Amino acid sequence: MFTVDNRAVGPHSGESGAADHERLVLEARDVEFDWANLPFHYVPNEPLPTHVLNVLHLLLPAGEEFFVEVFKKTLPLIKDDQLRLDVQGFIGQEAMHSQAHSGVLAHFEAQGVDVTPYTDQIRWLFGKLLAEKPGRNPRQRHRWLLEQVSFIAAIEHYTAVLGEWILNSPQLDVVGTDPVMLDMLRWHGAEEVEHKAVAFDTMKHLRAGYWRQVRAQLAVTPVMLLLWIRGVRFMYTVDPLLAPGTKPRWRDYVRSARRGLTPGPWRLIRVVGDYYKPGFHPSQLGGLERAVDYLAVSPAARASH
């Protein structure tokens, strides 16, 4: 018999962010973006920041489809009404994120830029390696579901941090980043901040356990880093504006991070460390007020109503 922990839902009473967490209603916004005028280097004259952000488009269509499929399987197991509503909102938002990033990939294809050598590998990762394995008994399937939820909770920790960063990245505006792309990234980032606790709360509710939480993050962190590095390198190889053989350099990343055009490493290291604390909850990350404020003014989000 599979059991759940109702006490694990949401931040503990009295913790920072608890009130915001409890009052927030997650909704999927039916956004649309027009990429007809998108320059290939949408961070002007900055290929490295552009391609650091492009890795999101490479990873997320398949990744967030995987999130949706996994969390659909959790719904019958959830005994808390509020958490069930949160998961339903999470599923709707993640489905829209996948669709929006797929639109960027379609734009690349229309421009003659073939990214399938990389995205096919990502689809194998989520569609085969991390997918449910056939022939397992119910207990084995449940254990694997807990592993999947824990992996997603670990990934969502990163997406929440990246979402908070993109919402507080004024230098991207200063250098003239394409406004449609910036709106898409900030809309997505804001929704990641909105639902940052859902996967974590589901993991706790289903009694995945602290050590599974830690193990998942230990696995996710190096894989995410590797995928991002490989993704940036791949985008350099298909970039029609760069001279053949041009490669990204670590000093270019350090320079762009110092200028506020890419996330800095120290922030990521600190928040990853927080995830291993037994009393950690995503509500401690903050950023929700800024996310809600941005969604109120986002051109795409406003047009969806």
UniProtKB/TrEMBL annotation:
InterPro entries documented for this protein? UCP07580
Pfam families under this entry? Metal_hydrol
Which superkingdom does the taxonomy of this entry point to? Bacteria
Q: Where is this region: Disordered?
A: 1-21
Record-linked PANTHER family: METAL-DEPENDENT HYDROLASE
Protein known as: Metal-dependent hydrolase
